[in-house]
Amino acid sequence: MKKKERILFLKPLKPQALNDAIIKLGASFIKLAQVLATRADFFTPEYLDKLKSLHDQLPPMAQNELDIVFANAFQVIPFENFEPEPIASASIGQVHIAYLPNHVKVAVKLRRLGIEKQVKADIAIISLFNSLFRPLFSHYTKNSIEAVIIEFSRMILQEVSMTQELENLQKFSHIYHNSGIRFPIPYVEFCSDDAIVMSYEEGFRFDDKERLLKENIDFKEVIGKLILFYTEQMLIKGYFHADPHPGNLLINTQGELILLDFGMVKTIPNDTRIAIIELIKAANEKDYELYISANKRLGTIAYEAPKAELALLCERMFDIFGNEQLSSENMQKLAFNVLNSTKDLPFKLPQEAIYILRVSAIIEGLGTTYIENFNGIKDILPILQENIPKALGAKEDILEMIIKEFKSIPLTIRDLKSSIKQISEGELKVELSLNQLEWITKELKGYVKPLLFSFALMIGGVFVLLYDPNLKDFALVLFTLGVAKLIF
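The structure assignment produced for this chain is given below.
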């Protein structure tokens, strides 16, 4: 990412070699690389040309494997014609064109043979390495890595089930039927855990710059529509598509957005959604202390992190990314210099934030393909800010808002009366947040562990002396070390 020619004696892989290595590592690593494949600000065009094939141009299944999967999926063949050559081949499955008896063109997604077993093996390997290296990490790094592995494992195991994907597609289509975005229509009677049959959607890839220009489609309008749609998903409905890479995003000749592949769909808890709204509001108003507080509620910054120091850091970062005069490369250099000073600050990565960050990285990466110096602060933040009233439940009709507020007054008075009564009777309860409890637990562990180790040494010395009085010198050393540890 820093475009270094080498690290120690190692040179970076060439584009083709990097692409081949990722494919060899398999589905789990391909998922990670798909995010990087959108980052025109990180990679040169030579790398991006190779990496974008990871979205839907992977080597397809061998014919014998395809035959087995097809036979498992369709006990009775429902098609008048099935094209054996896939039109797209991704990490979990591949898509074929087929025709139903009434000449209706459909897309058939078949999951790869043995993919569930491979994914479980990847998870086991990642978990093993986490167990080996866990003692080397700080408290919050351990928890963040653990959160990533747990969430990644859960989501990718869901993704290998075509039945789960069908349910996601049906629910998503129902919730967002008025969004202006097109979704495939499933033929439920032909679907199984090995296959999904759905309407064939005509379109070209989101990152096909030449085709976009040829069709006279305004990319700024399209990216704005995509951002608005994800704003609705993450801030208003709380149910979002977590895998919007260019292989899953098509545009038709009318400029309509088509969303495919519903294997990774995520529900955002309400408290997380509210924290994100507060985060956006604080960022737009440049209230950096409130921005840090919202981050703490979201769980990306630890409870005890110094608010003033982090607020200053945020101000510097916002100044960098809000500067219209800076090139994308210079923004990166300045940002990395600032981030280098944050190594010892207690940042975290909660489960809920993982896929939100992934979606943000992909959308920003797509923006950099078409818009010079595109970034979240100057190009995405204003759109998010405009939608905050809607996200908070504001209505179009002002009279309706006033009536709603009046209706809530008796409830507010009742809550106030109840609080005053609890205070007067000495029964007022104080609740701790999960972040505060985590900090208290961490602090207690920090105090208790040395004490336990000290007592263990002292007791060990006593037992050695009781076991063999001839080892009194060794016993004395153990006991002295325990006392020294306890004092110092």
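Interim note for the steering committee: The mean pLDDT is 79. DSSP finds 20 helices and ten strands in the chain.
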